[in-house]
Amino acid sequence: MGEGKPQIDEAVLRNPSANAPVVRGRSERWVVVGVLCVVALLACIPARKAYLQGQEDTRNNALLYAAMINSPTVSTLLEQGADPNATAVEQPPHDFLNFCLQMFRGGRKSSQDKKTALMYAAENGNLAMVKKLIDAKAEVNARDAGGFSALLWAVYQERKDSGAIILLLAEHGADLNVAEEGGATAWRLASTKPTILKALQQAKALQEGRGKKP
Questions:
Q1: Measuring CA to CA, which residue among 193, 196, 213 is closest to residue 161?
Q2: CATH H superfamily, domain 64-207
Q3: Which of these, 19, 55, 75, 114, could form a disulfide with 87 (CB 3.0-4.6 Å)?
Q4: pLDDT digit of tens for each residue in the chain (214 aa)?
Q5: Domain limits, the chain
Q6: Could you tell me which residues are beta bridge partners of residue 87?
Q7: Cβ-Cβ contacts under 8 Å for 82 (sequence gap 6 or more)
Q8: Measured in whole angstroms, how far is the alpha carbon of residue 38 from the centre of its chain?
């Protein structure tokens, strides 16, 4: 009868932890899996931030383009979170001819560099768009790579509503004495434009508290 009894390993009886490596091995695998999961989650954070940044850049680029072409979608893009102070960046020349042209003008950046939606709106004479952007906290004294501010663009282009835009910008603190990169001020640019010059004079009076907004 005794021959049918299971044999017990005496070594196991002397050392009960002999089978522990099997259990510990499984535990270690779960630890490794857990660590990998944490690493994956952490890796998702910058990826998510990059995705959101890409989405933001897309909205900002759309805003700048909409302002440039005078599109009413500017309002919608602002509501969707586009940055009113985003700036345009001119792409580097992709061919030898454009590179030579850039060098010919002294390596100066294009006037599109660092241009904001407010500058485009002022340049286009879009008074309603200028109001929208100012309400969205657009910086009125921002300047592009050529030193032009929204005010200078309004003066330079002389559109139908440029005078009203100049007054609106002045009301919100626009610098009336700003000069572009070449040294030309708004006053100099307006010297041959009676309507614009009058608007600048009214804007100056407005800022000095000697006049009222028409």
A1: 196
A2: Ankyrin repeat-containing domain (1.25.40.20)
A3: 114
A4: 455 555 555 554 455 555 544 445 567 777 777 777 666 555 544 444 433 344 456 778 889 899 999 999 999 999 999 999 999 865 444 444 554 554 454 444 444 588 999 999 999 999 999 999 999 999 999 999 999 999 999 999 999 999 999 999 999 999 999 999 999 999 999 999 999 999 999 999 999 985 444 4
A5: 64-207
A6: 116
A7: 56, 59, 60, 62, 63
A8: 32
Backbone angles phi, psi at 108, to 5 degrees: -70, 145
For the chain, how many residues are written? 214
pTM: 0.65
In this structure, how many other beta carbons lie within 10 angstroms of the beta carbon of residue 170?
22
Cα–Cα dist 138/188, whole Å: 25
Which amino acid, one-letter code, is at 191?
S
Burial class (CB within 10 angstroms; exposed 0-12, middle 13-18, buried 19+) of 131: middle
Decide if 70 contacts 129 (C-beta within 8 A). yes
Nearest Cα to Cα of residue 153 among 136, 198, 161, 104? 161
Residue identified by tokens 């805003």 is 63
**SS3 state at 87:** strand
| Amino acid at the residue 70 | N
Q: How many C-beta atoms surround the C-beta of residue 34 within 10 A?
A: 10
